[in-house]
Write a structure and sequence with these properties.
Keywords (chains A, B): Hydrolase
Structural class of chain A: alpha/beta
Oligomer: homodimer
Family (chains A, B): Belongs to the HAM1 NTPase family.
Helix content of chain A: 25-40%
Largest interface: A-B, 23 and 22 residues
Organism (chains A, B): Caldivirga maquilingensis (strain ATCC 700844 / DSM 13496 / JCM 10307 / IC-167)
Protein name (chains A, B): Non-canonical purine NTP pyrophosphatase, rdgB/HAM1 family
CATH class of chain A: Alpha Beta
Number of domains of chain A: 1
Largest sheet of chain A: 7 strands, mixed
Number of helices of chain A: 6
GO molecular function, one term (chains A, B): nucleoside triphosphate diphosphatase activity
Chain lengths: ~180, ~180
């Protein structure tokens, strides 16, 4: 099996992808020599598709994800990273203060270039936002996201459990299943 | 003088640009047949530059703007339109509740394609955010923005006064001065 090249500078994402794909005997390395062009769009699919089409080389992988909060019309969505850097977890929780509806989901879209085509794989995990940030593992919004059926935030779970549930792991599992099928 | 073609679908922006440029005898029309690619970036200059370079035809004009709130690390900045559509004015004000520092500025960057080059023109207006939305003229964040030296929000001012002060009018004035000089 070939080695996938993951266009990212995020070590956490690479680690998560590696952990999933290695179970299928698929290896993935960081590709940081390519400038990833991210467009503004409400759709992660569009963002990933655009980034890969500009530079469609076989085995190149791009991923984008976001946290979509129900009562905030999907905010922060595709702009989760910017929102995290500016208003942060505290800002996000503040927007939900006093709100009974704390429903949210994480979504990840993984794109793969193969035979000059872009294939997209999606992973979603539903849940709700905690009242306060809790836990210290993971990254980004992990301390405020409680997946359905659990009382722990992603940041309170061990890596193994988070990797079973997370949006990103689901998307990479779908990618792995596809690769296993075509090989 | 030629006619500028403004790549936008926003009637408010076209009206504001027309009102400024007509004072210099420059005409501008809406160009909505071109798909404007907006990248994700903290820099309005980068966003405008990328959009124009993809399709650099003489007299094409692109504008991008944002509201940058001091105590929120510049949020919502280049994503002001998305933030307006999702959490809205109420959400933004909520993030500032109890905050003494209500400083913010509007910034507009206008790009012009000429001789296969992109020229950028900037306009900034400093001010602060109101406690509540006030006024009904204008659009977007106008009801919550009070420019320096005034007690009225942009949405409470007449169009004439707003056009003297606004970031967009300043950027288009700079464009007009440039065009007048080279003609």
């Amino acid at each position: 099996m070939v080695t996938l090249r993951f266009v990212t500078r995020n070590q956490h994402k690479l680690k998560e992808a590696t952990s999933i794909l290695s179970q299928y005997g698929i290896s993935i390395v960081m590709e940081n020599s390519i400038n990833k062009v991210e467009i503004q769009s409400d759709s992660l699919e569009e963002i990933v598709n655009y980034a890969l089409r500009l530079n469609c080389v076989d085995w190149l992988v791009v991923e984008d994800d976001g946290l979509f909060v129900d009562s905030l019309n999907g905010f922060p969505g595709p702009y989760s990273e910017y929102v995290y850097r500016t208003i942060g977890l505290r800002g996000l929780l503040r927007l939900l203060q006093g709100s009974r509806d704390r429903g949210a989901y994480f979504k990840s879209v993984v794109g793969l270039c193969i035979n000059n085509e872009v294939k997209l794989f999606t992973g979603i995990v539903k849940g709700r936002l905690s009242e306060e940030p809790r836990g210290s593992s993971g990254f980004g919004y992990d301390p405020v996201f409680i997946p359905e059926g659990y009382d722990l935030t992603f940041a309170e779970m061990g890596e193994d459990l988070k990797n079973k549930l997370s949006h990103r792991s689901r998307a990479f599992n779908n990618l792995a299943t596809y690769l296993t099928r075509i090989n």
